[in-house]
Every structure is written in structure tokens, then in C-alpha cells.
Amino acid sequence: KMDDDDDDIPQLSSHTLAALQEFYLEQQQREGMKTSQGFNQYSIGSIEEDWQLSQFWYSDETASCLAKEAVLAAGKGGRIACISAPSVYQKLKEQDGEDFSVCILEYDRRFSLYGEEFIFYDYNHPLDLPENLLPHSFDIVIADPPYLSEECLQKTAETIKYLTKGKILLCTGAVMEEQAAKHLGVKMCKFIPKHSRNLANEFRCYVNYASGLD
């Protein structure tokens, strides 16, 4: 009887088991980093991706490039808003002491550890924003809508247009090119953003100003 019961237990393939072990090992290493001295809460990966929230962090190089572009576009003393783009926010915060300010609009409340710079944001309610977020008060808005759908882009676009003085840096799929132009008047750049884990969909950047991403 016992042998029969054992047969019913689903067995993981060796490939799946190895992948799972690798994942747990990575997780343990990250937890170890967090407890060791010198852990930086602003480093990319300090907060785990949550795929159920359609979260995919940029590679370090991409986040650095987008952060650098945002600082240049915002200008001295500029204000930068990151909508659903936490890895760019984290990279901007690594440049502490630079002459700009930044806030993060994000659905994931784990980012509330960033204090007053965190603003809870649900794209389904694009203008449900705190009173202190004044219209057209940011020199540049960087946005990465969580889903590749026109509805998500259209609603996020409402928030972007409300917040920006003019400059927009949008990161989304290549398939969204027409909708991005339609809702935000942005054009695709030559720069191709990369993620820390490869995505199935081709990803691109779009801007509505003369940027350093071409």
C-alpha cells in the first residue's frame, strides 16, 4: 500500500529541480547580502521582482543609461518622476548628492520603504494622486506601464501628461509603437533597453524630445 501511495507523488524533473535549487541559492545569497554590511536598499534587485505584478527589472547597464538620460533631460535642480520604473529610481538614488529630486509612483507597496518619495499608484485610477503632486511639476516623466495593452498605456499616459512639463521617456514593447505615438506623441529611440532576465517581447524606449538615446 505504501508503495502505491509513493507512486502518486508527482516527481520534479532533474532540470526543474536544478532550476529550483539555483533560485533558492540565489535568494539565500541575496538575503546574505542584505544582512551584511554595506547593503544598499537602492541597488537593483534589493526588492525582488514579483512576476504576478508583471515586474521585470532592467539590467544594471540599462538602468544606468536611463537614469543618466533622465538627469540630463531634467537639467540642474530638475524634478524626475518614475512611474512603474523602480530600477531607474533606484539607480537615480545611487547618485545621491546630485542636483535633482525624484519620486517613484508604484503599485507595489514594498517600495514604501523609500519614505516620502514613494507614491502609491494604480494605473486603473490615473489621476488619483496626492494633492502635493501638482500638474506639470516634473521636468521629465519616465514610465514603464506594467502591461502591453492599449488600455494600460492609455491610462498611464493620462498620468504622464498630468505630471510632465513636457518631456516624456517611455519604455514599453516594440509592439506598442503606434499606440505610444497616438497617446503620447513619442518616437522610438535607437537605444534598446535590456532586462536582468530576458523577456519574450522586444522592448524599446520612446521619447518626445531630442535625447541622448539615439
Write the layout of secondary structure elements.
Elements lengths: L1 H7 L5 H22 L24 H15 L3 E6 L2 H9 L5 E7 L11 E3 L17 E6 L6 H14 E10 L3 H8 L2 E2 L14 E5 L7
Parallel strand pairs: 1-2, 1-4, 2-3, 4-5
Antiparallel strand pairs: 5-7, 6-7
Helix pairs in contact: 3-4, 5-6
Summarize the structure.
The chain has 214 residues and is an alpha/beta fold. The chain has 6 helices and 7 strands. Helix 4 (86-94) links the parallel strand 1 and strand 2.
How is this structure best described in words?
- By secondary structure, the protein is an alpha/beta fold.
- The protein has six helices and seven strands; from the N terminus they run H-H-H-E-H-E-E-E-H-E-H-E-E.
- Strands 3-2-1-4-5-7-6 form a seven-stranded mixed beta sheet, with helices on both faces.
- Helix 4 links the parallel strand 1 and strand 2.
- Helix 3 crosses helix 4 and helix 5 packs parallel to helix 6.
- InterPro entries: DNA_methylase_N6_adenine_CS (IPR002052), Efm5/EEF1AKMT1 (IPR019369), Mlase_EEF1AKMT1/ZCCHC4 (IPR041370), SAM-dependent_MTases_sf (IPR029063).
